[in-house]
Design brief:
The complex is a heterotrimer of chains A (303), B (310) and C (442).
Chain A: H1 18-46, H2 51-56, H3 65-77, H4 82-114, H5 120-132, H6 135-148, H7 156-163, H8 166-179, H9 182-190, H10 195-203, H11 208-224, H12 227-232, H13 241-250, H14 267-294
Chain B: H1 3-7, H2 24-57, H3 69-76, H4 80-111, H5 115-126, H6 137-143, H7 152-157, H8 163-166, H9 172-197, H10 201-209, H11 214-242, H12 246-254, H13 265-274, H14 279-304
Chain C: H1 2-17, E1 26-27, E2 33-34, E3 43-47, H2 52-61, E4 67-71, H3 81-92, E5 99-102, H4 108-111, H5 132-136, E6 147-148, E7 151-152, E8 154-156, E9 162-167, H6 168-174, H7 182-195, H8 209-214, E10 220-226, E11 229-233, H9 237-251, H10 263-269, E12 275-279, H11 282-287, E13 300-303, E14 322-325, H12 332-344, H13 346-350, H14 360-372, H15 381-386, H16 401-414, H17 419-436, E15 440-441
Parallel strand pairs in C: 3-4, 3-5, 11-15
Antiparallel strand pairs in C: 1-2, 5-14, 6-7, 8-14, 9-12, 9-13, 10-11
Helix pairs in contact in C: 7-9, 16-17
């Protein structure tokens, strides 16, 4: 039986009676569901309309397949199919950064959680401070650094900075420190395992959930990153989706009046571009859902 | 930065030494090997740029030492105090909404026993989080325009009949809070859900046997056990809130600058860097933001006693 | 703490890395420090996606010139990408493109200046790089946004002179005559509100509203007097007369506070636009656009820009893109060839360009082509006449007047305030913005 029980609805000391309490909560949740869902539904429907229809028709009236096809053609005809290149680039950067992130973050989180070494505390505190500095201040130095080593314009100029993912390290750190019993490691050490073997044979097999987690968050963050690729990539061949979208926006009269004319991009096409830019993230989310739920605190801490 | 990003900024202070035996020397060496790649990345893309930013903040455009000149210049800018006010207002609204509503929704989602419903709810809440920056400019241009919005009824009810009326300066803090909540809440709900999964079923069962109602369980057991997570969420959101950038930037584009591009402090830093070609001023603003974020986080940390063991 | 010591050392290296010199430059024959030239080197061209047809046309006509084409957002909608990237390149010491198209017309204000000691990005064009005859053939005044202290730093792609658009069919139906002065325009506005409510004669919700109405009236809101000096005075008769006129029209609903690019405008005012002072590109953008007002053929007419009674006829300007040549270019010859082609060649400007060419000979031909389309109810000579009439007292500074108007005035008008009362606020906002951008306000 479904029990959508009363949550924090009743802050009052006396509990709310069963059915009315549940109904109120159900209504509140329904409102929130609408809140989250309505704009997305609108966006999906918008891809099937013509620009004129988008403005004058009712927001929830679906358009026609013909309009969807026209928008599709306009989107993929933009700069001769630049959109596919953008998506491909985004995938390249996100996956590249993901791989390096995993290689860097998992062992690092493990080490900080379950081993002893001199700079452990400092490393943790330092990266916290660095995470709190606004991006704007860090862009120029990173740009100069990469320019010195001649990487500006190559995919590495985007992949490397995005691989610095302290959030992933903290996730791993929390996970290992709460979910892997130290006794297990101590036992392995007693058995004569080297540190490397302790990591690969004991800790790593237990780390599947957190690896999926870090991979997912890293992917999403890299996929949605605008500023870094904008700064590092001078050539439009290398644009990821987020930067490409600004080109698209600049050809949309609503956002750039001087681009008005018959060649300009229409709003429903922009909606379609938005949906396409978001799909990969959603697909990855669907796959990673299981781990996102179970993985975070799987070991069980006691307060 | 994304909401998730701030998520684990919290659990920082490491735990006490584990009582383990073994060869300390060898263990240390291997540990260094484990952190090597991450340390290199941190130095290259975290520490060095941060040091450079500090250097910029205290020098002028020609590289000469400038003392606190950049800071006084930035704080005397006519846009500085309004930006501070904007960020402060937004922060209060967003923090309260996020902490209260996410906790509520997470608990509710958790109590749903039907698996597909629970999964769908989580997906629905998370979906908007996939829309970043430029992707949602178009979306908000329409959603906030009473003549074409899917929620035009609601907007008309609130007395708005044109787009410009919705985005007047007085309305912006709640508008941004709504947008940020829309994109950010889902990720947190998922994390809280995982944290709730962590609470031992036995405890809940025992309470139920003792006659506690669902509300009491939520209020007396689940919430206190979630206290740390809620506080973490608070700190992370605090940090993200002070760095408000994406929402005003995208509304600025959507409205063709009716929402200004110097609304928040982070945007102001961006303007200094790229409009006024004054990276020193930008670095000064960034450092100020850093100090504030650190100070506020420290308050949470010490008052909440959040970083003790566990 | 060894790590930190090493870190500081690296930080110092970084700082020095930004000091890259310009390698082998001396003040060349064109009036700016030049690199050693190589006539065969490929040139990197930055365009927005709307200008890619210009690149294609050039490639067709000049297949021997090697091009690397980069499409970017054209610095549109306040993104400032052109300036952002050039600043980064300046600090790195390399990476500048050879030719850049910008949709904005105020880039010369910063591109002509040294920044933090680094060489100015824009090449000087009127010291020999571009033939004088070519420069002289541009519509008079069209190169003003490109000119700083007598030197021309860019070529204008298109001109956006403000003219009076009107719906001839409606005007005849209502029995009004086309106004010639702002006073007559106001009178029609007042009549329309009484006799035909719902119809409009203008719109003030766009960020460029000040450029349509205040520029045309010689309001001294943006008097750029030098690379770093500006005079702002909105307390004059010129400014006040516009403000009070617009106040009346805003109040009676004939000049609503709506942007012509919003869904709201299309929904409320399709078939309801009687008069509309606006730039040349309004025709393709709003009137002859099925996604916007979609005015049927034979209805749209254009008349000379409105003037104030007894005053000389001047008009405003909204936009118009610019082409820059980099002073760091290794192949100025090809770069100049490209820029000259795209701004003057019939292949592009007459046959393909969507906007009114700034190059006068091309403009004449372009107008003839538009007239032959049969869409307009009148001839388009008013556009040609208005071209040289753009008032030179409104400059192009580094800061955006449009952003100031949108931020300060649009919400205030939405809140019911009168423009006349808002004039001092506007002046303060402009002065503040100018000052943070390094201008001295006189």
């Amino acid at each position: 039986m479904t029990t959508v029980d009363a949550g924090r609805h009743a802050r009052r000391p006396s509990s709310v009676s069963g059915w009315s309490g549940r109904t109120i909560v159900a209504v509140v949740v329904a409102i929130f569901v609408l809140f989250f869902v309505i704009p997305m539904v609108w966006l999906l429907l918008a891809t099937t309309k013509s620009a004129h229809g988008l403005i004058v028709d009712h927001p929830f009236l679906p358009g026609s397949l013909g309009d969807l096809a026209a928008n599709w053609d306009q989107l993929f005809g933009f700069q001769d199919g630049a959109v596919t290149a953008w998506v491909g680039n985004s995938a390249l950067y996100a996956v590249g950064a993901l791989i390096i992130t995993i290689i860097a973050s998992i062992p690092a989180g493990y080490a900080m959680a379950l081993t002893e070494f001199r700079f452990r505390r400092s490393l943790l505190v330092l990266t916290l401070i660095v995470m709190l500095i606004p991006n704007t201040a860090l862009v120029l130095p990173i740009f100069l650094e990469l320019n010195v080593v001649g990487l500006i314009g190559s995919p590495l100029s985007v992949i490397l900075p995005m691989s610095f993912f302290p959030f992933g390290v903290y996730l791993t750190y929390i996970y290992f420190s709460t979910s892997v019993p130290r006794d297990l490691l101590a036992a392995a050490r007693l058995d004569g395992c080297t540190e490397l073997q302790v990591f690969t044979r004991v800790a790593l097999p237990l780390a599947a959930p957190v690896v999926a987690l870090v991979a997912f968050f890293s992917f999403v963050q890299s996929w949605n990153n605008f500023f870094l690729p904008f700064v590092m990539l001078p050539s439009s061949d290398g644009y990821p989706v987020q930067v490409g979208l600004t080109s698209l926006l600049a050809s949309t009269p609503a956002f750039n009046p001087s681009s008005a004319g018959t060649q300009s991009v229409q709003l429903p096409t922009l909606a379609l571009a938005t949906v396409i830019s978001v799909l990969p993230v959603l697909i990855v989310f669907l796959f990673a859902q299981r781990f996102l739920v179970a993985g975070m605190t799987a070991g069980g801490t006691k307060e | 930065m994304t909401v998730m990003d701030e998520a684990a900024r919290s659990a920082v202070i490491p735990r006490g030494r584990p009582a383990g035996r073994g060869d300390g020397g060898e263990r240390s060496a291997m540990s260094y090997a484990f952190i090597a790649l991450y340390a290199v990345l941190t130095i290259a893309f975290g520490i060095l740029p941060a040091l450079y930013a500090v250097y910029l903040a205290f020098t002028d455009g020609d590289g000469r030492f400038a003392g606190i000149a950049n800071f006084t210049k930035v704080m005397g800018d006519f846009r500085f105090l309004p930006a501070v006010a904007h960020v402060a207002l937004y922060l209060v609204m967003w923090l309260v909404a996020l902490v209260v509503l996410v906790s509520f929704l997470a608990i509710v989602v958790h109590t749903v026993r039907v698996r597909w419903l629970s999964k769908t709810l989580r997906l629905v809440f998370y979906l908007p989080g996939a829309l970043a920056g430029a992707s949602s400019v178009l979306l908000w241009l329409f959603v906030l325009d009473p003549t074409a919005s899917p929620v035009s009824g609601l907007l008309h009810l609130m007395g708005f009949s044109s787009f410009v009326q919705v985005i007047v300066p007085a309305n912006l803090p709640p508008v941004f809070a709504v947008i940020a909540f829309w994109t950010g809440a889902g990720g947190w709900i998922v994390i809280m859900y995982g944290a709730l999964n962590n609470i031992s079923r036995d405890v809940i069962e025992a309470a139920r046997i003792d006659g506690a109602s669902t509300v009491q369980i939520a209020w007396r057991i689940q919430l206190p056990l979630l206290r740390k997570w809620i506080s973490y969420m608070g700190i992370m959101s605090l940090a993200a809130g002070t760095q408000l950038f994406v929402e005003p930037q995208l509304l600025s584009q959507a409205s063709n600058a009716v929402v200004p591009n110097d609304y928040s402090l982070n945007q102001l830093a961006y303007q200094y860097a790229f409009q006024q070609n004054d990276f020193n001023g930008a670095a000064a603003i960034s450092l100020l933001l850093l100090v504030v974020a650190l100070a506020l986080s420290a308050v949470f940390v010490t008052r909440g006693g959040l970083f003790e063991r566990g | 703490m060894r790590a930190i010591g090493g870190a500081s050392a690296l930080a110092i290296v970084l700082t020095l890395a930004g000091c890259g010199g310009n390698g082998g430059s001396s003040v060349g024959s064109y009036g700016f420090p030049q690199l050693t030239q190589d006539d065969k080197a490929p040139i990197t061209v930055w365009v927005d996606s709307d200008r890619s047809s210009a690149v294609d046309a050039f490639k067709k006509a000049n297949p021997d010139v090697k091009l690397n084409v980069v499409t970017y957002d054209g610095s549109a909608n306040g993104s400032n990408s052109f300036r952002t990237k050039v600043q980064l390149f300046d600090r790195a010491g390399n990476g500048w493109p050879d030719v850049v198209f910008s949709t904005q017309n105020n880039d010369a204000a910063w591109a002509s200046q040294k920044s933090n000691g680094k060489q100015a990005f824009a090449a000087v064009l009127n010291s020999g790089l571009v033939p004088k005859t070519t420069l002289d053939d541009f519509t008079q005044g069209s190169l003003n946004p490109c000119t700083v202290e007598g030197k021309v730093y860019c070529l204008r792609n298109d001109l956006s002179q403000v003219v009076l658009w009107y719906n001839k069919t409606l005007l005849d139906k209502f029995g009004y005559s086309v106004p010639a002065t702002w006073e007559e325009y106001q009178a029609i506005g007042e009549k329309v509100a009484k006799e035909h409510p719902g119809y409009i004669v203008g719109a003030v919700g766009d960020s460029f509203a000040s450029e349509i109405y205040f520029w045309s009236s010689k309001c001294q809101a943006n008097d750029i007097t030098g690379p770093k000096t500006v005079t702002v005075n909105t307390d004059s008769t010129e400014c006040k007369r516009v403000a009070s006129m617009l106040d009346i029209l805003i109040k009676n609903g004939t000049a609503p506070n709506v942007s012509v690019f919003t869904p709201e405008f299309v929904k409320k005012y399709s078939d309801k636009v009687l008069l509309m002072p606006g730039p040349a590109w309004y025709a393709g953008a709003i009137f002859n656009n099925p996604q916007s007002l979609n005015v049927a053929a034979g209805q749209l007419g254009v008349a000379a820009p409105l003037a104030w009674q007894g005053d000389t006829a001047v008009t405003g300007n909204v936009g118009g893109g610019t082409w820059f040549i980099s002073s760091h270019s290794k192949n100025l010859k090809s770069a100049e060839k490209f820029v000259e082609f795209v701004t003057t060649a019939d292949d592009y400007q007459v046959n393909l360009a969507p906007g009114y060419p700034a190059y006068a000979p091309a403009a004449d031909k372009w107008i003839k082509k538009q007239e032959s389309s049969g869409y307009y109810a009148t001839d388009l000579q008013a556009l040609i006449k208005a071209g040289p009439q753009i008032w030179s007292g409104w400059g192009s500074g580094v800061f955006s007047q449009e952003a100031i108007w949108a931020k300060t005035m649009t919400p205030a008008i939405a809140g019911g305030k009168s423009l006349v009362d808002l004039l001092p606020e506007w002046e303060t906002a402009i002065k503040n913005q100018a000052q943070v951008n390094g201008y001295t306000v006189k």
